Prior knowledge:
Layout: H1 2-16, H2 22-47, H3 51-71, H4 75-94, H5 101-120, H6 131-134, H7 142-171, H8 183-205, H9 210-224, H10 228-253, H11 257-278, H12 282-290
Helix pairs in contact: 2-7, 2-8, 2-9, 2-10, 3-4, 3-5, 3-8, 3-9, 4-5, 7-8, 9-10, 9-11, 9-12, 10-11
Amino acid sequence: MxxxxxxxxxxxxxxxxxxxxxxxxRALVEVLLLGVVGGTLGVWIVLTRLSxxxxxxxxxxFPGLVGAALLGVPLVLGGAVGLLVAALLIxxxxxxxxxxxxxxxxxxFTAMFGxxxxxxxxxxxxxxxxxxxxxxxxxxxxxxxxxxxxxxAVVLVALRVLHPHLLATAxxxxxxxxxxxxxxxxxxxxxxxxxxxxxxxxxxxGNLFVAATLVAPAASARLLGWRVVPTMAVAVAVAVxxxxxxxxxxxxxxxxxxxxxxxxxxxxxxxLVAAARLAGGARVAxxxxxx
Length: 291
C-alpha cells in the first residue's frame, strides 16, 4: 500500500503544490472567471461570425486603456473613449473613396493598436502599464479579482436577457425580425459585451491574448457541441481546463503565465481540429472551417 502512495504523491504533488500560495489561488479564481465569460460569450461570437471583431476590438481599446492607466482613471472609461475614437476614425476613413470599408477598419484598428503600444512601451511610462499589453495574472490583487467577478456577472446577466434575440439572429438573421429580434442592435450589444469581457481579460492575459480566451474555447466547443447551452458548457470547460494547464506550465517551466494560457488554449483547438480531420468527420471539419 505504501508503495502505491509514493508514486501517487509524485504525480499529484506537481499538480497540487502550486495552489498553496495566495498568488496562484487568485490566478486560479481569475482563470475560472475568464473561462466562464469567455466560454459563454465566445459561443455567440463564433455563431454570429464576429470572431474578427473580437480580435480587433481589444486592439482598438488599447490606447484608451493605456491612457486610463496613466491618468489613474477607471479602465472602463478609457476603453469606452478608445472605442468612441475608433468609431469616429472608421466613419471618417470610410468616406475616403480609395479605401473600401474593410480596409478602412483594418487601417484604424492597426493604427490604434500601434498607438497604444507606443504609449505602453514609452521610456517614461511606468512599468505596470506595459502589463496591459502582456497581462500579469500572477500579479492580480483581491480587488482586481472582485472587479473581474462583477464584470463577469454583468456579461452573464446581459447574455441571459439577450438569449432569445441572440438565438434568432445567430441561426436565421434574415428571419430574426419575425421573432422580435433586431440583428443590428444585437450586433451592437455583442460588441459592447466583448468590450466588457476585454476589461475582464486584459489585466490577466494582456491585450494581445484576449482573443484566445474569447474565440478559441468556443471554436473548440463548436467541434463537439450541438445545441447552444451544451456548447457553452463545453466551451467553459475547455477554457477553464486550458487556463489551469497554462498556469501549471507557467509555474513549472517559468514561462509567462498569460502566454502559456493562450498557447494551451489554442493548442487544444488545433489538436481537436486535427483529430476531427483524421477521423474523417467531414461535418466536424466543416465546422472548423466555419469557426
